[in-house]
Every structure is written in C-alpha cells, then in structure tokens.
Amino acid sequence: MTTDILADLAAERPDDYTAEEWKLRVELAACYRVFDILGWTELLFNHITLRVPGETPAYLINPFGLNYNEVTARNLIRIGLDGTPLEKTEHHVNRAGFVIHSAIHAARADAHCIAHTHTTDGMAVACKEEGLRYDDFYGAELWGDVAYHDFEGITVHEDEGPRLVRSLSDKHIMILRNHGMLVVGGDVFSTFRWAWTLERACNVQCAAGALPGPDRSLSDEIRAACARDARAFEPKGLLERMLFLGVLRRAAFDPGELLKT
Questions:
Q1: I need a labelling partner for 211 at 20 to 30 A (CA). Which of 57, 83, 103, 117 fits?
Q2: Nearest CA to 192 among 35, 70, 61?
Q3: CATH assignment at residue 14
Q4: Residues in a beta bridge with 58
Q5: What is the 3-state secondary structure (H, E, C) of the chain?
Q6: How far apart are CA 155 and CA 157, in angstroms?
Q7: pLDDT in tens, 137-186
Q8: Residue stretches of the chain with pLDDT short of 70
C-alpha cells in the first residue's frame, strides 16, 4: 500500500456501495481506529457520525456493542435523523446517544462530521467553572470557536436537541459542561484535527493546574492571532489529512481490517 492508506482502501469498493459512500465509510472507519489508537474511547459508548450524500438525510454511525477498533467500513450503519437504520444490520444503534448528533446534523449544513468524547482531561475541564483556558499553544488556537452547553443529565431526551443547537450556534467546538467534548467539522479529517487540538489544550491545562503558582495568561490579541494563523497553516486543505494518515501509519494493525464485515 502507498502512504495514503485511505485512497488504497477506497479503491477496493464493493459493488453494493456508490464510490462516494464507500469512500466516506472507509474514512469514518479509519477515524474510529484513530480515536482508539489515541485512547479517546469510553468502552462501547460515544460516537463519531458522518453525513452521507443523498435525497434523504442519512448518516453513518458505529454499531452499538462494538469497540472502536472493531468498527469497519462495512459494519457502519446508515441511519436517519431519528437514529433508525436505513439498511439491514445485525447490530444495534444507540439511539439515545444519537440525540446530540441528530439535532446538530439537522440544524447545521456544515456539520458533516461530529465527534463526541469523554476523555478524562476533557471531562475535567468541562467540570471547571472557567471551562477551557486559552493560555497555551493549543488552547489559543481555539479562541473564538468554543461554545458551552449546561448539563441537563444523560442526553436521552429529544427536547434537549434545540437547546444544544442554540448553545452551539455557529461554533465548531462545544464543551458539554460536567459531561464531555463535542467537535463539528466538514469531514473526518478536520474533525480529527480540532478534536486533537482540543484534547491537547485540555491535557496542558490539567497539567499546568497541577503545578504550584499562578498560570500565565495571554492577551486576547495574541489568542486571536494564534487562532487565525492555525487556520491558515500550510499545506491548506491537506494538513488535516496528513495528520490523520500519520496516526494510522504508526499503528500496528493491518489496514485491511477496516474492510472486514
């Protein structure tokens, strides 16, 4: 295989999928593997969802009951906005867990991929009154693009959806207070990049908070400049994919596993 593992796997398309859907399935299955490699898992819980093009709104989601490293391009489930499968599957769908994703997918045309995590450092920051600080290399890159949503309990009630959407507004990152993190992106690669940046910011914040002495703050001017420069980082349009593929290449697994049934 070449260094672009995903391009190679997308070329092995089975006849029962369009080229576009198969490419997206491969990318999302790989995204679950990347999150697993980095330890961003919560047993069988949490989701990364991806919009599938077509006349009827449809999304790909992980089968409930499988670990992230067991998700493949074939066993991903195509579902509607209510979380109901739109194809035959032997697996379950965690419809309750899709409440957050369905509301945002429906409300935001740019919300092609949504990732929700419960990492320890992310949840710790979500539990702090101040929330995320923007006083380190990674936190500053997120300046101006972070929203907050107050905890209402386990997110299983559909009436919370509109409130989630209002809280997110036009931002791409939302800290679910006392709960976890949510990242919205245009594809799996941009979603991964900003989820990684957010996680690193939380890691640094937690580590700095454990040290004695006051934290050193950055000015809003410097924060804004960091956020602007981070989004202009070269090579534009390729950086996110390069980062993503770099994680896959360093993992000890057979890429062909992503194609299994």
A1: 117
A2: 35
A3: 3.40.225.10
A4: 52
A5: CCCCHHHHHHCCCCCCCCHHHHHHHHHHHHHHHHHHHCCCCECCECCEEEEECCCCCEEEECCECCCHHHCCCCCCEEECCCCCECCCCCCECCCHHHHHHHHHHHHCCCCCEEEEECCHHHHHHHCCCCCCCCCCHHHHHCCCCEEEECCCCCCCCHHHHHHHHHHHCCCCEEEECCCEEEEEECCHHHHHHHHHHHHHHHHHHHHHHCCCCCCCCCCHHHHHHHHHHHHCCCCCCCHHHHHHHHHHHHCCCCHHHHHCC
A6: 6
A7: 999 999 999 999 999 999 989 999 999 999 999 999 999 999 999 999 99
A8: 1-2
Position 120 scores a pLDDT of: 98
Find tokens 């493949």 and name the residue.
Answer: 72
> How far apart (Å, rounded) are the C-alpha atoms in residues 33 and 72?
9
238 half-sphere exposure, CB direction, 13 A CA radius: 3
Separation of first and last alpha carbons in the chain:
21
pTM for this predicted structure: 0.96
Position 171 scores a pLDDT of: 98
* Predicted pLDDT at 2: 58
Q: How many domains does the chain have?
A: 1
The span from the CA of 169 to the CA of 151, in Å, is 17
Identify the domain containing residue 96 by its residue range. Answer: 5-259
